[in-house]
Amino acid sequence: MKDKAKEFATKAHAGQKRKNSDDDYITHPIRVANRLEQEGFSEELVCAAYLHDVVEDTIYEIEDIEKHFGQKVASLVAAHTEDKSKSWKERKQHTIDTIKHAAKEVKYLIVADKLDNLIGLEKDLKVQGVAVWENFNAGVQEQKWYNQSIVQNMYEGLQADEIPDYFYEYEQLVNRIFI
C-alpha cells in the first residue's frame, strides 16, 4: 500500500514545486514518509505522510483518499488537512488546536511535516537570507508564533516513551530559527 500511496501522491503533485526552490513538490512528502517509516510507524501512517498534502494542494478530495487507501489513512490525512477557505491565522490556529488534542499518530504526522518544512527553511535562509520570508503567506513573527505554538502543544498527552527523537529535533530547530 505504501508504494501505491507514493505513486498516487507523485501523480497528484506532478508539476508542483517547493517554495524557494526548483525541487519537485513530491520530495517533501517522500521525506516525511521516510522519516515515519524509519521510526517504525504503521503502514497507514506512512501512507498518510505520502498523501498529507494531496487534498490541500491538488484536485483530489478526502473521499478519493478513502476510496483508494481506506478510512484510517483518510482520517489521518483529514486531521492534517487545512481548510484553504480560511485565513492563514485561522488555519494555523486549527493545526495548533489539533496537535494539542490529537491522537499520537496525528501528532507524529504533523510534527514530521513541520520538521521537514523547517529543515528546508533553514537551508533557504542560509542561501537566500531574509528575502525567503517574502514567499510566505505570513512573515517571520507569525511563523515564529506558529512554530513555537506547535512546540508548546505537541507533547500534550504523550508519555516520555511515546515521543520520537524528531520531536526534540523540531524543537531545537524552532529555537535555532526563531529565537
Structure description:
- The chain is globular, with a radius of gyration of 16 Å.
- Helix content is 68%, strand content 0%.
- The protein has one domain: Orthogonal Bundle (Hypothetical protein af1432).
- The mean pLDDT is 95.
- The protein has 179 residues and is mostly helical.
Structure described in brief:
With 179 residues, the chain is mostly helical. The protein has 9 helices and no strands.
Chart the SSEs and their pairings.
Layout: H1 2-12, H2 27-38, H3 43-51, H4 54-57, H5 62-79, H6 88-101, H7 104-128, H8 140-154, H9 165-178
Helix pairs in contact: 1-3, 2-3, 2-7, 3-5, 6-8, 7-9, 8-9
Termini Cα gap = 41 Å
Name the CATH class. Mainly Alpha
Q: Assign an overall shape.
A: globular
Secondary-structure element series: HHHHHHHHH
How much of the sequence is in beta strands? Answer: under 5%
Put simply, the count of helices is 9
Class derived from helix and strand content: mainly alpha
CATH domain fold name: Hypothetical protein af1432
List unreliable stretches of 5+ residues.
none
Can you count the beta strands? Answer: 0
